[in-house]
Amino acid sequence: MPSIRKQTLRGKVAIIGIGMSSVGKVPGKSPLWLAADAAGKALADAGIGKNEIDGVLSSHAFASPFHRFSVAFSEYFGIQPTFSNTLQVSGATAATMFNIGAAAIHSGLAEVVLVVGGDSLLTGLTPDLALRSMTESRDQQYEMPFGIPVANTFAMTAHRHMKDFGTTSEQLAEVAVVQRRHAMRTPGAQQTTPITVDEVLNSGMVTTPYHKLDCSLISDGGAAFILTSAEHAKALGIKNPIYILGGGECYTHEHIFLMPSLTTTGAVESSRRAYDMAGYGPKDMDLAGVYDCFTGTVIMMLEDLGFCPKGEGGRFVEDGQMTYGGQIPSNTHGGLLSFAHSGIPGSLFHFHEVIAQLRGQCGPRQVPDAQLGLVHSLGAGFATNATTILGTENTL
Amino acid sequence: MKKPMPAPDADSAAFWRGMRDGALLLQHCGDCGNVQYYQQAMCRQCGGEDLAHRAASGRGRVHSFSVVHRAPGPAFKADIPYAVLLVDLEEGPRMISTYTGGKPEDVVFDMEVMLVCEKVNDEITLPRFRKA
Ligand SMILES: [Zn+2]
Asked: Does B70 touch chain A (CB under 8 A)?
């Protein structure tokens, strides 16, 4: 529908600055500090001062449970924005911050938006907060009395995928192996020791079919991004703006037992909308950041995002299609499985990586001539899905 | 350490009363025929409010499952390993529960299961499932 596409934010908003704190084990630093450290780096990268920010979007932090994290952040950072919100759709929050930040700029609500998140799940949680982080997002009446952690909901989707499509534990493990190899080339990654499929399978069962090494890390860390209008980016003389070409979201259920299908998710619709707006399809993407709370999640997403047919995700990964030289190099920084996973902001690292790749700044792990990238964030047992498509100036 | 207990609300009070009396109450919509497990005072399909509670037969089939080996908090440590089930009830709705009355490794896909009303205290009885 080209007549609708004309009104969208496609190409109207550029990412002009990116920043990241140290990640992994960062003791003695609060979520607000991690977010502020990343924000300072993003501003320096953009070459602008903090008073030029007029919008702030953030995620929540388990270790600093402010109701209004974005507002607490602004006070901590010493700014008084005229547009702000703290978004909460679990793991999908990262991509929604980009989509909403771009919409705010496109609509005139703000001109320079800081997208920021930070949390310290590894060193900053009291035992009480740690328990809350694991269980509070599940239904207190219908799920928690049975002892159902969020990992379990994802596990049941992967398990059914194995039953329906013959996906194997070895194929799940291969995702972890590939991403560990990626992390080995990423400075600052939390886990850089090479692993094998056998080591994944022998790492101890968490909740079938997931072993310890099928599960993402627990980390400290923050990331931040500066978004502004394409015109303002030009006026500032930004050398390597990366544009938001499309965004899409989809929310299919709240409770895992009301998920329409355990093996096909809202990512189909969220990515379709993002592709539609961008005017590109899955085959055009040079790389992807795919939310990887668990290995099986990646396999299902490679299918739902259109990189391979439904049911073939396992073989796709086994054939080397999610790494360099394959169809869609994914999570080239190592992802939540090996780079870092500091909770809700975890997927911001996927954005940091895809943007750095599109800028050509990734050195030994650079995807050659990367021009178009997709980031998909999701959460809460696939209840929430959000996709953002990014491109260089050449792709406008 | 105590396990989390459901706190019945306006939408679910009748359901938990039913459990206490040994019945798993499903909501049947008088307008469109939709059957709901998750309790709400409005039909999810048509928005109608003519909902009648009827006891489920208790028969179901395992759509998916996962055996928990790492407990979500100290309250569940003594229970591991336990199998979490997604059960498709004979009447249509899918629900989440856990397996009882056997070893978790006995659970397989599409296994026929039967409701067990497990009394936890004077207020709360939980719906669990055993092999049929
Ligand atoms: Zn109805």
From this structure: yes
Count how many domains chain B has. 1
Measured between CB atoms, which of B6, B66, B79 is closest to A141? B6
Q: At a CB cut-off of 8 Å and minimum separation 6, what does B118 contact?
A: B100, B125, B126, B127, B128
Q: Yes or no: say if B43 and B32 are a contact pair by the CB < 8 Å rule.
A: yes
Full set of structural domains in chain A with CATH: 13-125+219-235 (3.40.47.10), 146-216+245-391 (3.40.47.10)
Q: How close are the terminal C-alpha atoms of chain A, in Å?
A: 18
With a cut of 90, say whether residue B59 has pLDDT above it.
yes
Average confidence score pLDDT of chain B: 96
Q: Does B8 reside within a domain?
A: no
Give the mean pLDDT of A68-83: 98
* Centroid of chain to Cα A143: 26
Nearest to A255 among B38, B65, B126 (CB): B38
Domain enclosing residue B90, as ranges: 13-131
Q: What pTM was computed for the model?
A: 0.97
Phi/psi at A211 (5° precision): -90, 175
**Does residue B83 belong to any structural domain of this protein?**
yes
